[in-house]
Amino acid sequence: MRPGEQLAWEKRSAGELDARGDALRALVRANVPFVVAGAYAFFEYTGIFRDTKDLDVFLRRRDLADALDALEEAGFRRHLEDPLWIAKAFKGEYYVDLIFSSGNGVAVVDDPWFVHARQGEVMGVPVLFAPPEEIIWSKGFVCERERYDGNDVSNLLRAVGHEMDWERLLARFGDHWEVLLAHLLLYRYAFPGERSQVPRWVMDELSRRSLSQLGEEDPVAKTCRGTLLSRTQYQHVVEHLGYEDHRALLREAILGESGDVVPAGRGG
User: Fold this and answer.
1) b (16+ CB within 10 A) / e for 22-39
2) How remote is the C-alpha of 243 from its chain's centroid?
3) Which of the 8 DSSP states describes residue 202?
4) CA-to-CA separations, 93 to 18, 53, 55, 87, 103, in angstroms, rounded
5) How far apart are CA 176 and CA 232, in angstroms?
6) Cα atoms in the 13 Å half-sphere on the side-chain side of 153
7) Are residues 82 and 197 in the same domain?
């Protein structure tokens, strides 16, 4: 057991830890593909312990119904929190988050989350940990007033930046590359003595893209991509100043008219 791991277990009740272990064993027993992220993966990659009230399990949308069925058979109560990205499974007061996308709909859980996952163990159960590239992709958009994951991004870069697949990370952010650049600049500020964790060519490429936009005229359309970073901090400009809400547009594109694209499974 690594330093800090014992402390992790001591901070939560036995019932809560049992519920997490039961959930993992149920998913493994049912052969449901999943990866573990959240505080457990963060500790695995950085060695930084952060007390957590739940277990974050990431899985493909198509596997959600099977996961909820398996957990229901293990005594959990199922609940679809948001059809865009998250369901929960409760055992008494304890719960597991089943996440199949980021809250804004950008970072969808797909096959590469599993292809590039790392083997490990949680609660005595062999699991796969989500790849750091995909964790950064997902966390990069969490910039709420009450929760900001940019510090997690910086600590992940400090710990494993030298071994990451940077071409894949750039491809993950795609048209949202400015979000990645913003986090890399903050990382360079936070850890000036470890800037080499980010390859020079990555900074060159993102700087080139940024410089190429200087001098361009503003687009005619009034649009706000800030809603992809925060659900609430850009509400005023969307609701009162006529800006187009990219978060709402993406949600509509994913869910369509039905509002729910997740199979219900046996438990509804």
Assistant:
1) bbbebbeeeebbbbbbbb
2) 27
3) H
4) 12, 11, 13, 16, 23
5) 19
6) 26
7) no
* Domain termination site, one of 130, 154, 180: 130
pLDDT tens per residue across span 105-160: 999 999 999 999 999 999 899 999 999 999 999 999 999 999 999 999 999 999 99
Residues 85 and 103: beta-carbon distance below 8 Å: yes
How many Cα atoms within 13 Å fall on the side-chain side of residue 168? 14
Whether residues 32 and 98 fall in one domain: yes
As to burial, measured by CB atoms within 10 angstroms (0-12 exposed, 13-18 middle, 19+ buried), residue 111 is exposed
Q: In the chain, what's the furthest Cα-to-Cα distance?
A: 60
- Listed range (81-85, 189-193, 252-256) with the worst mean pLDDT: 252-256
Number of domain units in the chain: 3
Domain boundary, last residue among 100, 130, 160:
130
- CATH code of the domain covering residue 39: 3.30.460.40
CB atoms within 10 A of CB 208: 9
232 falls within a domain: yes
Q: How many residues does the chain have?
A: 268
pTM of the model: 0.91
112 and 42: one domain?
Answer: yes
